[in-house]
Amino acid sequence: MVNKPARPTDSLIGNDSWNIQLDTKGRLKHFLTIEGLGSEILTNILDTAESFANVNEQSVKKVPILRGKTIVNLFFEASTRTRTTFELAAKRLSADILNINISTSATSKGETLLDTLQNLQAMLCDMFIVRHSDSGAAHFIASHVAPHISVINAGDGRHAHPTQAMLDMFTIRRNKGDFGQLRVAIVGDLLHSRVARSQIHALNTLNTGDVRVIAPKTLIPTGIEDMGVSVFNDLEAGIRDADVIIMLRLQKERMLGALLPSEAEYYSQYGLTEERLRAAKDDAIVMHPGPINRGVEIESRVADGVRSVILDQVTYGIAVRMAVMSMVLGREPEQPGGDVT
Amino acid sequence: MDDIAKPDQLLEILADDLKKLLTERSIDNPLMVGIHTGGAWIAEILHRKLGLEQPLATLDISFYRDDFSRIGMNPKVKPSRLPPQVEDKHIILVDDVLQTGRTIRAAMNEIFDYGRPASITLVCLVDRSGRELPIQADVIGQHLNLEPGQHIKLSGPDPLEFVIT
Prior knowledge:
The complex is a heterodimer.
Chain A: H1 39-57, E1 70-75, H2 81-92, E2 96-101, H3 110-122, E3 127-132, H4 137-142, E4 150-156, H5 162-176, E5 183-187, H6 194-205, E6 210-214, E7 230-232, H7 235-239, E8 244-247, H8 263-270, H9 274-277, E9 285-287, H10 300-303, H11 310-329
Parallel strand pairs in A: 1-2, 1-3, 3-4, 5-6, 5-8, 6-7, 8-9
Helix pairs in contact in A: 1-5, 1-11, 2-11, 5-6, 5-11
Chain B: H1 7-24, E1 31-35, H2 38-50, E2 57-59, H3 68-71, E3 90-98, H4 102-114, E4 119-128, E5 139-144, E6 152-155, E7 161-164
Parallel strand pairs in B: 1-2, 1-3, 3-4, 4-5
Antiparallel strand pairs in B: 6-7
Helix pairs in contact in B: 1-2
């Protein structure tokens, strides 16, 4: 189905990836990647999420807007946080949600995937939330589903994880406000990180002042400078005066070959400790998409410390996913309907 | 079209009539709930005029609209501020303009998600023609006959004014 890219920086899914996300009126139909979406849509997602964050703080954390809609969590790769927050988001919108966990090898399963899809479509579902270890899987599914079905990418290979990026933007905006003045440092395994790619696209689209990536040379994809970031190999130099530090998980399961001497060696150079954090601004926030490897990329004292907003990210993830789901399913039909009073 | 009074005049009428009605129904210490945005402005003034003890509550019914799938997501929904317990409370629901009745239907659905109130009294500044549901207000500032294509909107909060288009 999807050709494995020779290098992660290669164009993964072609130039039309952003195109099929929008309907003829320019509204979000699928949410597959941040790439190609304007700041207006991203800001709209953040504003809508703000409304849902209020719902999540009420004693009754449920609204009826997606009543009668059926959503399928289609996870071909393990996930706890993302799957459960999508599930909670759907439930708080009063949708019905099915969880389907299909563990597959990294080999292409095109035929099986299409068969699965056709069966689920026959059950009259409205939305697929897809996680897959192959880059481009969500895009592939979106281009093969019936026209009334929306697809949300919950992480595809090394390519994109757009709802994670948007919940990170939400966390940054809530803590720091205007992106234009911010220095944001992304630290760690950029080579394997779909989260980082989506974050960089989102930060650039929202006109972030200074975006930096920090990692050993072996974990930096070639050509990443072309995405409009500056590259650092030294942690303390990279996070100097940063407002936001985003730590990435060392993706041991995706490591092919000897990219690193050892975890201990990595921690000694790139682990975020309280001492190293002093290089950043006094009020800098520390983020991590989870799951965290304590003592590998981040010291426990930092992960649990006052600067950490890691658990806020999880909470905000529900509101952001509610926003995306309701925007995608809340579009008026493209055919003329009745009058609205 | 009929002439329309100033919102401030109508508020005087509302406050007087509501006081009488509450006495009549032996309701004391009610919970006043204003519907965003116009209803919340009106409710704030009424709450003060009546000197109610329970803090003012507000509702944004955007998530409860029955036309969601047609008009889509309103990105700036204000938080609903209802006390966690509405069980057995006497509620005074306040809105600016009553037309189709759909807003009130949505507001009552939201209130019932929080619990079972003892009663709901509906107060509206203007009751205009165009009802689509069997809903009527208990206290009304003014009845108004408008053509189906005409719209009335309250602008505010300071000053409160009607805009008819």
